[in-house]
Amino acid sequence: MTAQIIDGKAIAQEVRLEWKVRADRLIARGITPGMAVIIVGNDPASKVYVANKVKACAELGLYSIHIELPENATEAELLAEIETLNRDPRIHGILVQLPLPKHLDAHRVIEAINPDKDVDGFHEKNVGALVTGETPFPSCTPYGVMVMLEKTGVQIEGKHAVVVGRSNIVGKPMALLLLHKNATVTICTSKTVDLARHTRDADILVAAVGKPNFITKDMVKPGAVVIDVGINRNSEGKLVGDVDFANVKEVAGYITPVPGGVGPMTITMLIANTVRAAERLSGLNK
Ligand code: GUN
Predict the structure, then answer these.
(1) What is the Å distance from ligand 1's center to 178 Cα?
(2) Where are the domains of the chain?
Protein backbone atom coordinates (compact mmCIF):
# COMPACT_ATOMS: atom_id res chain seq x y z
CA MET A 1 0.00 0.00 0.00
CA THR A 2 1.22 3.49 -0.78
CA ALA A 3 0.06 6.36 1.39
CA GLN A 4 -2.10 9.18 0.18
CA ILE A 5 -0.05 12.37 0.27
CA ILE A 6 -1.69 15.19 2.22
CA ASP A 7 -1.15 18.32 0.13
CA GLY A 8 -0.53 21.03 2.71
CA LYS A 9 -0.11 23.70 0.07
CA ALA A 10 -3.54 23.05 -1.44
CA ILE A 11 -5.29 22.84 1.94
CA ALA A 12 -3.52 25.99 3.13
CA GLN A 13 -4.70 27.85 0.02
CA GLU A 14 -8.29 26.75 0.61
CA VAL A 15 -8.19 27.76 4.28
CA ARG A 16 -6.55 31.11 3.45
CA LEU A 17 -9.46 31.95 1.17
CA GLU A 18 -11.90 31.19 4.01
CA TRP A 19 -10.02 33.59 6.29
CA LYS A 20 -9.74 36.19 3.53
CA VAL A 21 -13.55 36.45 3.60
CA ARG A 22 -13.38 37.29 7.31
CA ALA A 23 -10.49 39.72 6.77
CA ASP A 24 -12.38 41.46 3.97
CA ARG A 25 -15.41 41.84 6.24
CA LEU A 26 -13.22 43.75 8.70
CA ILE A 27 -11.54 45.77 5.96
CA ALA A 28 -14.99 46.83 4.70
CA ARG A 29 -15.61 48.28 8.19
CA GLY A 30 -12.34 50.20 8.08
CA ILE A 31 -10.34 47.75 10.19
CA THR A 32 -7.36 46.22 8.42
CA PRO A 33 -6.03 43.29 10.47
CA GLY A 34 -2.41 44.07 11.31
CA MET A 35 0.47 41.86 12.38
CA ALA A 36 3.92 42.74 13.68
CA VAL A 37 6.80 40.31 13.56
CA ILE A 38 9.93 40.96 15.59
CA ILE A 39 13.13 39.12 14.79
CA VAL A 40 16.29 39.44 16.84
CA GLY A 41 19.61 38.49 15.24
CA ASN A 42 20.57 36.78 12.00
CA ASP A 43 19.44 33.16 12.17
CA PRO A 44 18.99 32.33 8.44
CA ALA A 45 16.10 29.89 8.95
CA SER A 46 14.22 32.40 11.14
CA LYS A 47 14.73 35.09 8.50
CA VAL A 48 13.13 32.87 5.85
CA TYR A 49 10.15 32.05 8.12
CA VAL A 50 9.61 35.72 8.95
CA ALA A 51 9.83 36.80 5.29
CA ASN A 52 7.21 34.14 4.42
CA LYS A 53 4.90 35.35 7.21
CA VAL A 54 5.09 38.97 6.05
CA LYS A 55 4.56 37.94 2.40
CA ALA A 56 1.45 35.89 3.27
CA CYS A 57 -0.04 38.87 5.12
CA ALA A 58 0.54 41.13 2.13
CA GLU A 59 -1.08 38.60 -0.23
CA LEU A 60 -4.29 38.69 1.80
CA GLY A 61 -4.33 42.48 2.10
CA LEU A 62 -3.36 42.48 5.78
CA TYR A 63 -1.20 45.22 7.27
CA SER A 64 2.13 43.98 8.56
CA ILE A 65 5.32 45.37 9.98
CA HIS A 66 8.62 43.63 10.37
CA ILE A 67 11.00 44.80 13.08
CA GLU A 68 14.60 43.61 12.96
CA LEU A 69 16.77 44.01 16.03
CA PRO A 70 20.48 43.25 16.07
CA GLU A 71 21.86 40.06 17.66
CA ASN A 72 23.16 42.10 20.63
CA ALA A 73 19.88 43.94 21.32
CA THR A 74 19.14 44.25 25.03
CA GLU A 75 16.05 42.83 26.69
CA ALA A 76 15.00 46.40 27.57
CA GLU A 77 15.10 47.36 23.88
CA LEU A 78 13.03 44.35 22.89
CA LEU A 79 10.49 44.94 25.69
CA ALA A 80 10.20 48.60 24.62
CA GLU A 81 9.34 47.51 21.05
CA ILE A 82 6.70 45.12 22.38
CA GLU A 83 5.20 47.84 24.58
CA THR A 84 4.92 50.19 21.58
CA LEU A 85 3.16 47.44 19.57
CA ASN A 86 0.87 46.60 22.50
CA ARG A 87 -0.38 50.23 22.33
CA ASP A 88 -0.49 50.53 18.52
CA PRO A 89 -4.15 50.27 17.37
CA ARG A 90 -3.08 49.24 13.83
CA ILE A 91 -1.48 46.08 15.24
CA HIS A 92 -3.74 43.18 16.30
CA GLY A 93 -1.15 40.40 16.35
CA ILE A 94 2.39 40.41 17.72
CA LEU A 95 4.86 37.61 17.10
CA VAL A 96 8.41 37.42 18.41
CA GLN A 97 10.25 34.88 16.29
CA LEU A 98 11.89 32.13 18.36
CA PRO A 99 14.50 31.06 19.23
CA LEU A 100 15.87 34.29 20.71
CA PRO A 101 19.60 34.85 21.25
CA LYS A 102 20.72 33.20 24.51
CA HIS A 103 21.10 36.41 26.52
CA LEU A 104 17.39 37.18 26.19
CA ASP A 105 14.80 35.54 28.46
CA ALA A 106 12.14 34.20 26.07
CA HIS A 107 9.64 33.65 28.86
CA ARG A 108 9.83 37.27 30.10
CA VAL A 109 9.60 38.50 26.52
CA ILE A 110 6.49 36.43 25.72
CA GLU A 111 4.79 37.49 28.95
CA ALA A 112 5.25 41.15 27.91
CA ILE A 113 3.01 40.66 24.87
CA ASN A 114 -0.61 41.75 25.38
CA PRO A 115 -2.38 38.33 25.54
CA ASP A 116 -5.14 39.72 23.29
CA LYS A 117 -2.48 40.23 20.59
CA ASP A 118 -0.59 36.97 21.27
CA VAL A 119 -1.28 35.29 17.91
CA ASP A 120 1.28 32.56 18.65
CA GLY A 121 -0.73 31.54 21.71
CA PHE A 122 2.45 31.36 23.80
CA HIS A 123 1.47 33.73 26.64
CA GLU A 124 0.65 31.92 29.90
CA LYS A 125 -2.92 33.25 29.77
CA ASN A 126 -3.46 31.63 26.38
CA VAL A 127 -1.61 28.44 27.31
CA GLY A 128 -3.92 28.16 30.32
CA ALA A 129 -6.92 28.73 28.05
CA LEU A 130 -5.61 26.01 25.74
CA VAL A 131 -5.63 23.55 28.64
CA THR A 132 -9.28 24.31 29.40
CA GLY A 133 -10.15 24.22 25.69
CA GLU A 134 -11.08 27.91 25.41
CA THR A 135 -8.10 29.54 23.75
CA PRO A 136 -8.75 32.14 21.05
CA PHE A 137 -5.22 31.56 19.71
CA PRO A 138 -4.21 27.89 19.32
CA SER A 139 -0.47 27.75 18.51
CA CYS A 140 -0.15 27.98 14.74
CA THR A 141 1.60 24.72 13.87
CA PRO A 142 -0.59 22.35 15.93
CA TYR A 143 -3.64 24.38 14.88
CA GLY A 144 -2.58 23.86 11.25
CA VAL A 145 -2.22 20.12 11.82
CA MET A 146 -5.74 19.95 13.29
CA VAL A 147 -7.23 21.81 10.31
CA MET A 148 -5.29 19.57 7.94
CA LEU A 149 -6.65 16.42 9.63
CA GLU A 150 -10.16 17.84 9.52
CA LYS A 151 -9.95 18.80 5.83
CA THR A 152 -8.56 15.34 5.00
CA GLY A 153 -11.50 13.72 6.79
CA VAL A 154 -9.37 11.89 9.36
CA GLN A 155 -11.38 10.61 12.29
CA ILE A 156 -9.76 11.72 15.56
CA GLU A 157 -12.29 10.77 18.21
CA GLY A 158 -11.41 7.50 19.91
CA LYS A 159 -8.18 7.08 17.94
CA HIS A 160 -4.73 6.66 19.46
CA ALA A 161 -2.64 9.75 18.66
CA VAL A 162 1.07 9.61 19.46
CA VAL A 163 2.97 12.89 19.53
CA VAL A 164 6.76 12.57 19.46
CA GLY A 165 8.19 15.81 20.85
CA ARG A 166 7.30 17.82 23.92
CA SER A 167 8.10 21.41 22.95
CA ASN A 168 5.95 24.32 24.05
CA ILE A 169 5.59 25.39 20.40
CA VAL A 170 4.40 22.07 18.94
CA GLY A 171 4.38 18.90 21.07
CA LYS A 172 2.46 20.04 24.14
CA PRO A 173 -0.21 22.15 22.39
CA MET A 174 -0.57 19.42 19.72
CA ALA A 175 -1.33 16.82 22.39
CA LEU A 176 -3.92 19.09 24.02
CA LEU A 177 -5.72 19.91 20.75
CA LEU A 178 -5.95 16.18 19.92
CA LEU A 179 -7.19 15.45 23.43
CA HIS A 180 -9.93 18.07 23.07
CA LYS A 181 -11.11 16.13 20.00
CA ASN A 182 -11.32 12.98 22.16
CA ALA A 183 -8.24 11.20 20.88
CA THR A 184 -6.37 8.95 23.29
CA VAL A 185 -3.06 10.77 23.42
CA THR A 186 0.45 9.55 24.19
CA ILE A 187 3.29 12.08 24.37
CA CYS A 188 6.75 10.67 23.72
CA THR A 189 10.14 12.33 23.49
CA SER A 190 13.24 11.44 21.53
CA LYS A 191 14.44 9.80 24.79
CA THR A 192 11.42 7.52 25.31
CA VAL A 193 12.53 3.96 26.02
CA ASP A 194 11.39 1.61 23.24
CA LEU A 195 9.84 4.48 21.33
CA ALA A 196 8.82 2.21 18.44
CA ARG A 197 6.53 0.25 20.79
CA HIS A 198 4.49 3.44 21.25
CA THR A 199 4.66 4.78 17.69
CA ARG A 200 3.67 1.40 16.22
CA ASP A 201 0.42 1.63 18.14
CA ALA A 202 -0.45 5.08 16.73
CA ASP A 203 -3.43 5.60 14.45
CA ILE A 204 -2.24 9.21 14.12
CA LEU A 205 1.49 9.82 14.51
CA VAL A 206 2.84 13.37 14.80
CA ALA A 207 6.61 13.76 14.59
CA ALA A 208 8.03 16.97 16.05
CA VAL A 209 11.54 16.18 17.26
CA GLY A 210 13.77 18.02 14.80
CA LYS A 211 15.87 15.04 13.68
CA PRO A 212 16.01 13.91 10.03
CA ASN A 213 14.77 10.35 9.32
CA PHE A 214 13.93 9.86 12.99
CA ILE A 215 10.69 8.01 12.24
CA THR A 216 11.42 4.93 10.16
CA LYS A 217 9.10 2.47 8.41
CA ASP A 218 9.32 -0.17 11.18
CA MET A 219 7.96 2.41 13.67
CA VAL A 220 4.69 2.97 11.80
CA LYS A 221 1.49 0.92 11.90
CA PRO A 222 0.17 0.02 8.42
CA GLY A 223 -2.49 2.54 7.43
CA ALA A 224 -1.55 5.15 10.06
CA VAL A 225 -1.84 8.89 9.45
CA VAL A 226 1.69 10.32 9.66
CA ILE A 227 2.15 14.06 10.18
CA ASP A 228 5.69 15.37 9.83
CA VAL A 229 6.29 18.67 11.63
CA GLY A 230 10.09 18.55 11.29
CA ILE A 231 12.01 21.01 9.16
CA ASN A 232 15.66 19.95 8.96
CA ARG A 233 18.51 20.26 6.50
CA ASN A 234 20.13 16.94 5.65
CA SER A 235 23.85 16.50 4.92
CA GLU A 236 23.28 17.64 1.30
CA GLY A 237 21.52 20.82 2.48
CA LYS A 238 18.12 19.55 1.32
CA LEU A 239 15.00 20.37 3.39
CA VAL A 240 13.69 17.20 5.06
CA GLY A 241 11.29 16.36 7.86
CA ASP A 242 11.58 14.01 10.85
CA VAL A 243 10.06 11.11 8.92
CA ASP A 244 11.85 8.83 6.45
CA PHE A 245 9.28 9.81 3.85
CA ALA A 246 10.37 7.52 0.98
CA ASN A 247 10.00 4.35 3.07
CA VAL A 248 7.25 5.35 5.52
CA LYS A 249 4.92 6.24 2.63
CA GLU A 250 4.96 2.54 1.71
CA VAL A 251 3.16 1.62 4.94
CA ALA A 252 1.23 4.74 6.07
CA GLY A 253 -2.36 5.44 5.04
CA TYR A 254 -1.77 9.20 4.80
CA ILE A 255 1.46 11.17 5.04
CA THR A 256 2.52 14.83 4.86
CA PRO A 257 5.54 15.74 2.73
CA VAL A 258 8.33 18.18 3.66
CA PRO A 259 8.29 20.76 2.17
CA GLY A 260 4.65 21.32 1.20
CA GLY A 261 3.00 19.67 4.22
CA VAL A 262 2.63 21.30 7.62
CA GLY A 263 4.73 24.41 6.78
CA PRO A 264 2.17 26.25 4.63
CA MET A 265 -0.54 25.47 7.23
CA THR A 266 1.44 27.16 10.02
CA ILE A 267 1.52 30.48 8.19
CA THR A 268 -2.14 30.18 7.28
CA MET A 269 -3.14 29.70 10.92
CA LEU A 270 -1.06 32.72 11.89
CA ILE A 271 -3.21 34.72 9.49
CA ALA A 272 -6.32 33.12 11.00
CA ASN A 273 -5.21 34.09 14.51
CA THR A 274 -4.42 37.64 13.39
CA VAL A 275 -7.84 38.07 11.78
CA ARG A 276 -9.47 36.62 14.91
CA ALA A 277 -7.43 38.99 17.09
CA ALA A 278 -8.63 41.94 14.99
CA GLU A 279 -12.25 40.72 15.29
CA ARG A 280 -11.94 40.39 19.07
CA LEU A 281 -10.16 43.72 19.61
CA SER A 282 -12.83 45.50 17.58
CA GLY A 283 -15.65 43.77 19.49
CA LEU A 284 -16.82 41.60 16.57
CA ASN A 285 -15.95 38.24 18.12
CA LYS A 286 -15.34 36.79 21.57
N1 GUN B 1 9.90 29.47 15.73
C2 GUN B 1 9.53 28.27 15.18
N3 GUN B 1 8.19 28.18 15.14
C4 GUN B 1 7.70 29.33 15.65
C5 GUN B 1 6.38 29.81 15.86
O6 GUN B 1 5.37 29.16 15.58
N7 GUN B 1 6.30 31.06 16.41
C8 GUN B 1 7.39 31.78 16.74
N9 GUN B 1 7.20 32.98 17.30
N10 GUN B 1 8.63 31.36 16.58
C11 GUN B 1 8.77 30.13 16.02
Answers:
(1) 20
(2) 30-115, 140-263
